[in-house]
Amino acid sequence: MQHARQLRPLGVVAADQAIANRSRGLQSRLYAQFFLQIATEWQCQQADCDLIGRTISNIKYLELNFIDVEDRHTQKNSLASMLEAWHVDRLEAGNRIFCVSGMDTHAGTQTKVSRITSAPPFFHVRFPRFGEAITIPVDLPEYLDNSPYADAASLPSDQGTPPKLIMEPIYRLSAVNIYYSHGIGPDGQSRGHYVLYTVQDGVWICLDDSCGKQYATAEHPQVAFNNGGVAYFAVYERIRDKTALPFEKTGTHSTGHLLRKGRVDPGAKLVEPLWERPKTGPSFSCHLCNNSFPDDASLANHKPECKLVCNECKLTFTDKKQFEAHIAQCKPPPPETETERWQREERIKIEAKLRQEMEKEYSQKLADAKEKMRREMMGENRTGDAEAVARLRSALEAERERNVTLIGLLQGQVDMLRARNDDIDNQVMHM
User: Fold this and answer.
1) What is the pLDDT of residue 234?
2) Cα-to-chain-centroid distance, residue 157
């Protein structure tokens, strides 16, 4: 092993290893489709030693250990958390990795760090199913971004930013093998059944030889998760020319449908992903109430009507700073005295009586106008005189104009009375 300053660049070592494998005849079409190249490093924690050990290995699948074999409900054992635990593997207390110098007196380390240096088109992950781990559920996302464990993963030998090895990091789940546990047999061995789900032409297909069918059926693996099945292995297929996860309709990146027990079955047919951020219009916000509007015209229509109201004194403001300054010093009005209560009740009685009289007067005038119109129409029918019809029409139109004028005058009086009442209220409140 070499001193930290003497380690060759990771990209060079990874490329040399790949060339050496080809020269030994290890390369094949199957190898190129599934084999990963992994770099693992560990650094001695001795104060006067910075030696780093490094290994480069080629594996056909990534086996991930469960984080908590006793946890079956809180989703600690998700694929994302298990990949993170694989990236930074911390040994249990009492265990250590010896320093590459071979000196037992050195502290060594309890941590080894791994990263993917070459990823194949098909990313194969497997979960150990034995002992207590036989039925532990694992959450599987539809889309996987492995850049946190590849080009963005830092190793002890990195001097600053981790080296980029030009890998396409986005994958989509294309196959999952489901294990159904049938308990322990008479011989003490676990009994179970395996079912394979795979994607064909954009549709999830279930291959199960235990149901008596001799043909595949269209079915999403969510059905198996809901029926108590657990993932034994999963295969993710690379999506070419993509460097980021697809988008939700809200504009945020998404890992798609999450396979977890209890989720709704989305159906066998795959949903087409959104690779471009959905276009959403700019948000226009009111500086007073902070409400958002889809366009500038809607905001312009809202502004004249927007007012801030003090809950204590009911005063209104169109300036936010003035409103905030008022709120800081506004005090609730003093309790109403007996005299103020009597004055308020009298104002209400007077206003109600005046309104009743005006309505009665208006109703009487309207009834008189209708009666006059009826009599004139009866006179028109008796005489049949064209001049009488013209006079009646003129009289009706004049009467209508007078009624409109009367209504306006009455409404003006009501508005004046209401304005006067508001002035009285303000005067009483500030006395």
Assistant:
1) 96
2) 37
Contact 171, 244 (CB under 8 A): no
Instruction: Name 141's bridge partners.
Output: 258
> 116-125: per-residue pLDDT in tens?
988 999 999 9
Parent domain of 292: 284-329
Written as six digits, the tokens of 78 are: 């998700």
Distance between CA atoms of residues 408 and 396, nearest Å: 18
Lowest mean pLDDT among 70-84, 118-132, 204-218: 70-84
Q: What is the CATH number of the domain that holds 310?
A: 3.30.160
Instruction: Judge if 46 and 167 occupy the same domain.
Output: yes
For residues 254 and 323, membership in a common domain is answered with no
Structure token digits, residue 55:
């290994």
Alpha-carbon gap, residue 35 to 385, rounded angstroms: 109
Residue 253 lies in a domain: yes
In three-state form (DSSP H/G/I as H, E/B as E, the rest C), the secondary structure along 62-111 is: EECCCCCCCCCCCCCCEHHHHHHHHHEEECCCCCCECCCCCCCCCCCECE
Confidence of residue 329 (pLDDT cuts 50, 70, 90): confident
Query: Count of domains in the chain?
Result: 3
Residues 6+ apart with CB under 8 A from 135: 72, 181, 230
Output DSSP code: residue 145: E
- Find all residues with CB under 8 Å of 375, minimum gap 6, and list them: none
Q: Are residues 311 and 421 in the same domain?
A: no
pTM: 0.62
